[in-house]
Write a structure and sequence with these properties.
303 residues, alpha+beta
Length: 303
Amino acid sequence: MRIGAVKRPATPEQARDLAREHGAQALYLAGATSLHFLTDASQKLGKEAKRPIDKNLGKEAKRPIDKKVAILLDRLDLRGISDDGRRYCIGAMTSLAELMNFRAQRWAFHETVRRTATHQIRNISTIGGNICRVFPWCDLPVALLALDAQMLLLGEERYSLSADDFFASQPARRLANGDLLLYVELPPLAAHMGFGYRKEVVTLSGFSLMTVAVRLCLEQGAISSARVAAGGALPFPRRLSQVEDLLVGRPAAPDTFVAAAEGVQGIPWKGREDWSDAYTLQVAKVAVHDALQRALDFAQRRN
């Protein structure tokens, strides 16, 4: 990734206007921890891309390397976590370390963040940067899908998207027109709700090979609603509607969880790090069952 110029806007509106001015060359940067994974055609072809201009003589001319205009977001007032009683509002520039250390009675997001990367990365990486360009191993989109988050963005005006809509496809494509993520809003977990999370890795700080997150709502011992999401072993994070359908209206009991875990059949699990697809399917069953049990334990401890 080649950076040709750097801009440091003072407001979200200035950042949006700069992104629209530079179009495809614009690149929002927060913690910049994902730059290592971004490539362009010039990089693949070498330091200087070349193209033939005379087929008969075979001469080649150097072509200018595509350079990005980096729009640094570090001056924007988009840090911190607030609670107005109806939602937790997380600024897009809030670091993962801040999220991991935050505690509140109806909050569980730190359970996901503390399993993400290393202390050094968490100190630098931001929630906005982490979810606006999603890689297969990303943890936070899975948890945000399960927790029914809302994203507040700036386009021509401010608007919001549910996590289901925001992660329906690669967010980077949706934001290619210069729209900017401002806040992530999380509804608090009521007394009858539980959250469960399971992540499979080779090493403690390694990329996720399987991530599952669950939010259960209980009423008189039965599951009134369920949100189950997975990633890591899928092309893109997604809700597991088949599993959710096997939970809602049924008792919050071991037999229900066993049957629901079987609902991962037919989902296009893809093994990585030498995992076969068949083995990945078996891991998915275990991970879903374990996340469901953790969500139940969470809810029961708080009732």
